[in-house]
Amino acid sequence: MFTKILIANRGEIACRVIRTLRRMGIASVAVYSDADQEALHAVSADEAVRIGPPPSSESYLLIDRLVEACRRTGAQAVHPGYGFLSENSLFVDALASAGITFIGPSSRAIEIMGDKIASKELAKEAGVNVIPGHGQALENADEAVHQAALIGYPVMLKASAGGGGKGMRIAADETQCREGFERAQSEARSSFGDDRVLIEKFIDQPRHIEIQVLGDQQGNCVHLNERECSIQRRHQKIIEEAPSPFLDAETRRAMGEQAVMLARAVDYFSAGTVEFIVDPHRNFYFLEMNTRLQVEHPVTEIITGLDIVELMLRVAAGERLPFTQSDIRIDGWAMESRIYAEDPVRGFLPSTGRLTRYHPPTEDESIRMDNGILEGGEVSVYYDPMVAKLISCGPDRDAAIAAMGHGLDRFQVQGVSTNIPFLAAVIAHPRFVSGQLTTGFIAEEYPDGFDTPAPSGELHFRLMVLSVVLHQRALEQQATLSSSTAEPGLRVVRINGKSFYCEVELLDDGYAVSCDTKHLVLKTDWWPGRGVCRFECDDSVFFAGVECDRITYRVSHAGAVLEAVVLNPLVGDLYHHMPVRTLTDQSHLVLSPMSGLLVSVSVTEGQSVQSGQEVAVIEAMKMENVLRSERDGVVAEIHVQPGEIVEQDQALVEFETGS
Fold this sequence. Notes:
Layout: E1 4-7, H1 11-24, E2 27-33, H2 40-44, E3 47-52, H3 63-73, E4 77-79, H4 89-97, E5 101-102, H5 107-113, H6 116-125, E6 133-134, H7 141-151, E7 155-163, E8 166-171, H8 174-192, E9 197-201, E10 207-215, E11 221-233, E12 236-242, H9 249-265, E13 270-278, E14 284-290, H10 297-304, H11 308-316, E15 333-340, E16 342-343, E17 349-350, E18 353-354, E19 357-359, E20 367-371, E21 378-379, E22 386-394, H12 397-409, E23 412-414, H13 420-428, H14 430-433, H15 441-445, H16 457-482, E24 490-495, E25 498-506, E26 511-515, E27 518-524, E28 532-537, E29 540-549, E30 552-557, E31 560-567, H17 569-574, E32 589-591, E33 596-601, E34 608-609, E35 614-620, E36 623-628, E37 633-638, E38 645-646, E39 651-655
Parallel strand pairs: 1-2, 1-4, 2-3, 4-5
Antiparallel strand pairs: 6-9, 7-8, 7-9, 10-11, 10-13, 11-12, 12-15, 13-14, 15-22, 16-17, 18-21, 19-23, 20-22, 24-25, 24-31, 25-26, 26-27, 27-28, 28-29, 29-30, 30-31, 32-39, 33-35, 33-38, 34-37, 35-36, 37-39
């Protein structure tokens, strides 16, 4: 077995690998760019080596520097994590030439399976079901439109060398096909250095279900059952679970057998994932094979009791798999939520900045945290916006969902926006709870985007009572500092311009709150300064995020947010006389919705622009974002130039006022 291993990655996956190395007594070497000098993975490893400036093209993607880091530290092997060079056959060959072991499959397997054209042909030969489509790379947008007409809309355009949702577009007509081809090709070129684009039939109401495979260098290969990965946004998975709520034993067996057949066809060893699209009738079709560790591998680890990273190390060291297919089990249910630094309310645009508060839930028997950042750390424009993964488990799916809900409610992040409210709303959605999932779930259930929902019904009353109790607790804290008392009594709660009158009564072990004809007893030990409140009511335990600003309480639970102002009766009766602040008119400006690199400006000064017309393109966290005008007008001034780094809300283009 190796005694020292370098992790050619960053963030949560580097920290995840370090966790296993430490348990196995193997020394770890981290690499970092200038932007990551104080990052969690860099300070967690036994050694850390600087490899260059922040852009990944000048650091994490430089093969020579990674090989040199191995030589300098004496690392005998490299774990690539996922992304970056994890599926780069040239990297594998360079390590081999230097006498360093790559903890992953052979360069041949990576090369074949990393090419969607070659992998599809191999899958056909191996007897694996494949999706109807054109088997060659498209030459241009005209050919894309021609092939789409032959296949039939809707179609999927995707980068041949792609992954992670980059370089992928769905087209329902000729216009979308032309634009989708251009965007897919551009993203493929910038992300993978390979602008080949494929086209294939888009399966209606599809599920994305994948099979984890594992092989050794002696020819043994097994599958570790499936993961349901249908909850996706822009083809990027955000919630995964194992097992799938859709598969039956027969389909699971058939998919597993085909995944192993494909792995054997390419002499595969190490961990890999065969991804399938599954239609409503449980017909399944090969999508692609990822020749690396998947982001969502923890859910498989939980239901099988296996450490996939450890098994990758042992296979790379030449050891045989210590089990056969009949030994693989499914024990319980596991679910994973990807925590992204992005703003769901603003179209999921990336959010960058420093984490002024970062308190993930504490790990216990139902929660696992794979972290990639510390409080005070910075989310950079240079890398993927995922900062952590929250994994829950339980004896069944309902228990795993409940544990995930508690975990999300206990997650505190300030300084950047995150998708935590959206994740909490999704797992509480009746369609999700019932297991009726497709890759179109988010587009179908949130067609106008996500707006943090206000609570309604019993949840509204419960959170209103909670805000009243929190205010009472705050008064009690102030009383301890002034040797006075905080008498309970009548409170006026202002929510969205409406006033509610609540009577607070102090009990021996909690508070009784009455509002009109409704009554609730609530218990909590919350104290001002805590960002999470644990409370009991209705014979259940709940968690809520809490933000306080004197008399204003913002409480969040299960994706819903209630903002309440709690007042004494006299002030409450006068509160509606307070002036309302007016906002500055910025309708004549095109503002950058995020921080990022300005790729292009599509208009010129003096040009007439129509609503919906492309104005600029910004690249942030490896994705291109097209900015379109929200009004007709004439361009008065352009404030930026392509190649500049722009900040969120920075003015890019200004229209003539009155135009």
